[in-house]
Predict the 3D structure of the following.
Amino acid sequence: MISWERKALNFINQTSRWDKEKHISSFLAFSISLVKNLVEADIALQLEFEDENTAKVKNASPVFLNDIVLNPDPVRKLLYKHAFKSIYWPVIPPEPENVFPELLRALSSAVIIPVNTEPHNSVIILGWSEPQEFSQPFQECTETIRLRLKEILTQSQQQLYFQGIAMRFAAVLHTLPHAVIFINNDGFSGWVNQQAADLLQLSGPGEQLPAILSDAMTQLRNKTTNTEEIYNTAIHLFSSPDKSITGWEWQMAAPAAKTYRVSCLPVTSQQVNGRLWIFEE
């Protein structure tokens, strides 16, 4: 006897492990493939509403279904008709009720699972070549899976969105002519652009541990000709109310013989609490 409750828990457990261990970009594809295996479907896919005129198949198993494009209007009408609840077809109806003839060809049974997320809505479609009964325990299982899939879709979209923002800001910061160093107060995260990596003689730009950055900045300070002045200014900086400074001069000894105007600014938000250092020649 099939334990649908156990299958639902299996889905939650496996997707939770993937969430912690694997890359987010393949999270959704893995989750849909896992659903297909757990319910022993012959096809499984995501139909995403890309805009008002386009719904495209993604993360399909078998993969030849990927990139099929459908008119989203009939799909939306079907979802509205069923109040955006999962639709169970023990026997796939003929057109026009079956709005997926390109996807469900040669299949006997199907389940359509709406997953409402913004900015794009998605539908997960499962299909079987043999007739299915879709018992109440099965429906409870798919409802649990639907809720978890909604979490996965939302999480995937958010992380990919923030990854895109991070890449854009990193590209901007890497093109600045100044050395930019950020050290978070959490003791675990820091960041430098290419100019800062060169200045501090680090292996490369990007994420760096605060301890490594602090040590590199200490070594840089020790190469200055006004080390004592810098040290005394630093004491006043960290004891001042606003804990910020601009126009602070670090005069480098030979062979560099450069003078940097240094700014140190606090960076505080709900997610970030640290210091931004800017070295300008």
Q: What stands out?
A: Residues 200 and 215 are 9 Å apart (CA to CA). The chain has two domains: 4-166, 176-280. The first helix runs from residue 4 to 21.
